[in-house]
Amino acid sequence: MSAPQTGEAASPLQICRIMRPDDANVAGNVHGGNILKMIEEAGCIVGTRHCNTQNGDRCLAALVRVEKTEFLSPVFIGEVTHVTAEITHTSKHSLEVQVKVMAENILTGAKKLANKAALWYVPCSLQNVDKIMEVPPIKYASAEQEEEGRKRYEAQKMERLETKARPEEMMPSPPNPEDPPKEKHTVGFSQSSLIHLVGPSDCTLHDYVHGGVTMKLMDEVAGIVAARHCNTNIVTASVDAINFHRKIKKGCVVTVTGRLTFVSNKSMEIEVLVDASSVVEAEKGKYRAVSAFFTFISLDKDNKPLPVPALKVEGEDEQRRFDEGKVRYLQNKEKRLSDKMRGQ
Question: Pfam families this protein is in (predicted)?
Answer without folding.
Answer: 4HBT (PF03061)
